[in-house]
């Protein structure tokens, strides 16, 4: 491993390591947690799930059946967390090791995002526990920018989650995709002050690196440490499908309408009672006056 490449041999990885492999001619990387025994737990798009965003899906690379490991491909219904053997995880790609606790200078020198972080990892046994727990309970809905395979691996290694769900997630790969055009946009007004295209390119590259560093999970301040057993309660990651969520929403609306109707009936009965009481009081006053 080094500044140019994090490529490793299979004999170099240990249980609890965050590993990844490049797909589609280095277009994007797919991440997972090596749990030992030639097995990897990783996060993919759910089977038969659709998305309005066109993006390479790592799930399409998974074989339907593994000839070596019978439990390869195991996943819970409506969950994107899957157990694969190392061969099926890599496909035809090479094996890379994700680095933790790197220095800021080392991080900035890595031009490609999604290869390292300044965050401190937890012990291997904790990492494996999180990965296996999420294999049974799910990791929410897959999202390219806010909840992808790298986000899954980063959480398993650190236990850190981003509080602001409206922005980019923990993934360095996603922040690189967003950071490049943002850097170009921010540097455009500076073109009038910087002589020559070389100066503009330098400023753009610097802004890109700084924006990527600012979104690193080891630097940003909008993250919290969350126990894996508490994720359902804190983030409402129940692993239910969209159909179940829609059914629940329809049921809630129906119950709301029923309660509204009951309230109207109660109000009508109360109004009739008040009207009758007023008549009785009026009759009593008339009799007393006579």
TrEMBL record:
Superkingdom of origin organism: Eukaryota
Q: Please name the Pfam families in this protein's record.
A: LRAT
Please give the coiled-coil regions recorded for this protein.
Answer: none
Residue ranges of the LRAT domain? 20-165
InterPro entries attached to this UniProt entry: LRAT_dom
Q: Where is the region Disordered?
A: 240-263
The molecule here is called Uncharacterized protein LOC104604719 isoform X2
What is the species listed in this Swiss-Prot or TrEMBL entry? Nelumbo nucifera (Sacred lotus)
């Amino acid at each position: 491993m080094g500044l140019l490449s994090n490529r490793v041999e299979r004999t170099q990885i240990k249980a609890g390591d965050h590993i990844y492999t490049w797909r589609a001619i280095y277009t994007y990387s797919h991440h997972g947690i090596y749990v030992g025994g030639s097995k990897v737990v990783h996060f993919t798009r759910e089977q038969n799930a659709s998305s309005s965003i066109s993006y390479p899906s790592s799930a399409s690379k998974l074989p339907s059946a593994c000839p070596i490991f019978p439990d390869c491909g195991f996943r819970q219904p409506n969950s994107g967390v899957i157990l694969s053997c190392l061969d099926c995880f890599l496909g035809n790609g090479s094996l890379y090791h994700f680095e933790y606790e790197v220095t800021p200078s080392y991080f900035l020198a890595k031009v490609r995002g999604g290869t390292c972080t300044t965050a401190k990892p937890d012990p291997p046994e904790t990492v494996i526990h999180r990965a296996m727990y999420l294999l049974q309970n799910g990791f929410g809905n897959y999202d390219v920018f806010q909840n992808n395979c790298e986000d899954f691996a980063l959480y398993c290694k650190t236990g850190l989650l981003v509080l602001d769900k409206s922005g980019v997630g923990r993934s360095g790969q996603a922040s690189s995709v967003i950071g490049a055009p943002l850097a170009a946009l921010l540097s455009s007004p500076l073109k009038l002050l910087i002589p020559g295209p070389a100066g503009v390119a330098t400023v753009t590259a610097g802004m890109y690196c700084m924006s990527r560093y600012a979104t690193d999970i080891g630097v940003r301040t909008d993250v919290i440490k969350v126990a894996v057993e508490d994720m359902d309660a804190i983030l409402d990651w129940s692993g239910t499908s969209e159909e179940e969520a829609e059914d629940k929403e329809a049921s809630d609306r129906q119950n709301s309408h029923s309660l509204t109707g009951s309230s109207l009936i109660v109000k009508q009965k109360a109004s009739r009672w008040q009207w009758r009481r007023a008549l009785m009081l009026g009759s009593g006053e008339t009799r007393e006056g006579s």
